Amino acid sequence: MRRFYRIGSAAALVAALGGCSFRTALDKMVAPDRQKELVAIGERFCTDPASIKSQLHPEIAVSVEAAAPALPRECPNGEATWQLASYNWKTNVTAGLKERQEEVVVVGSGKGKWTTVSLRFYAKNEAPLLITEWNVLGSATKPPALQFIEQYEAGAKALRIGSPIILLAIGGLVFWLVRRQRAKRAA
């Protein structure tokens, strides 16, 4: 019976480590349709802020309008690839009040330029989520959000490769110790 638990535990650990890529974790947190929607909002916020005016909280609409002429300079020129790089959500439900919040980082890249669009959405009760905070930052180097994803993927790959090796080594050591103990008892 103990052997069954050891084998089952090892198999469960290997199976868990097999699916721990960043994209998989993001897919489990955010529905694919919502991911596409957030990426489209981030891209439009950078390239055409006027098109998302209905999704802006009234308190920040003026600041976005004022910054709109400068935003396209921060965005990659021509064809760009946009992706969701970070997602965080919070919900607070108290007596008579339901608050929802999403924090999103969308990164666009193209022709040697990177753009990070950070957005915070907020809604009370059944109101739609509106953008309450924003930041657009263009750079010539890869943003920290994408560097984190690459480090995460490298660590997950190392775990997927290293874990079975370590489990086999531990299993071999246990097998050897048990055989050795039995041999001592027999002698």
Write the layout of secondary structure elements.
Layout: H1 2-18, H2 22-29, H3 32-47, H4 58-67, H5 71-74, E1 81-94, E2 97-110, E3 113-124, E4 130-139, H6 144-186
Helix pairs in contact: 1-6
Structural account:
This protein is α+β, with helices and mostly antiparallel strands. Helix content is 52%, strand content 27%. The chain has helices at 2-18, 22-29, 32-47, 58-67, 71-74, 144-186, and strands spanning 81-94, 97-110, 113-124, 130-139. It has a 4-stranded antiparallel beta sheet, sandwiched between helices. Strand 3 (113-124) and strand 4 (130-139) form a beta hairpin. Helix 1 (2-18) runs antiparallel to helix 6. The protein is elongated and about 85 Å long. The two termini are 27 Å apart. The model is unreliable at 1-15 (pLDDT under 50).
Q: Please state the overall shape, judged from the principal axes of the Cα atoms.
A: elongated
- N- to C-terminal separation? 27 Å
Note the quaternary state here. Answer: single chain
Please indicate the percent range of residues in DSSP E strands (runs of 2 or more).
Answer: 25-35%
Structural class by helix and strand composition: alpha+beta
Mean pLDDT: 80
Helix content: 40-55%
Instruction: Catalogue the unreliable spans.
Output: 1-15
Number of strands: 4
**Spatial order of the strands in the main sheet?**
1-2-3-4
Order of helices and strands: HHHHHEEEEH
As a whole number of angstroms, the C-alpha radius of gyration is 25 Å
Biggest sheet record:
4 strands, antiparallel
SS field, number of helical segments: 6
